[in-house]
Amino acid sequence: MTPQYFDIHSHVTFKEYDQDLEEVLVRMQEERVHTITVGVDYATSKEAVEFAETHEGFYATIGLHPTDTVTETFSVSEYAKFAKHPKVVGVGECGVDYFRLEGDAVEEKKRQWNEFEKQMYFAIEHDLPLMIHCRPKKGTVDAYEEMATRLESEFKQVGEKLRGNMHFFVGNVDVARRFYDIGFTTSFTGVVTFAREYDEVIQFAPINMLMTETDAPYASPVPFRGKRNQPPYIKYVVDALARIKGSDVGIMEKALVANAERVFLSRFS
Question: The whole model's pTM is what?
């Protein structure tokens, strides 16, 4: 099935879909939606791979979220079991989250960066893009600035072997430019259907550096705010990006699918 839409970040194996997953899958087929099912720890990474293996139009990433499972550490040997799977298209979601730092902030940041760097090196070794979770402290872009600096430094060493996407991007034009300059894309969620603070970045972004995601079951777009999100709702995000950029919707659809395939499906070409 050739996709009309590509939701590059969802969690369809989560319990929120236990009651009606088959109905969601039918809608995805009808509306030609492909998605990447994202792992946040070893267990959900394994689930994502197994699910993608048996479902057309699904792919998986494997990785450890910075704050969802703080008792787990990234095991290179364990995750390596999945790295060569034909449906595995990235490492993550991994990164740093400064929004709610608990306990000793210095030690917590150190832990998060240690886990991220293991995954960054793992991605380079296995020639996979990164799916980066990066959340700054409220009212700042601190985590983005630190992430840009770290990626820029690594990029100088390894070049395009380091690549990926900034998931659920909420930064400004200045930090977006830094990511674009080293080839990292930014993805946007249903939040852009009702919040205007991302318009400037979207208008600034080259169309080939944009991605769309649902982050389902979270971040539902208008007209489904407050309800559980699902991959078929990606079309509302695409429509919003086209409106904000003043682009034809059909052109935007094709560009976003091409971007997703370029970054995450290059191993299939």
Answer: 0.97
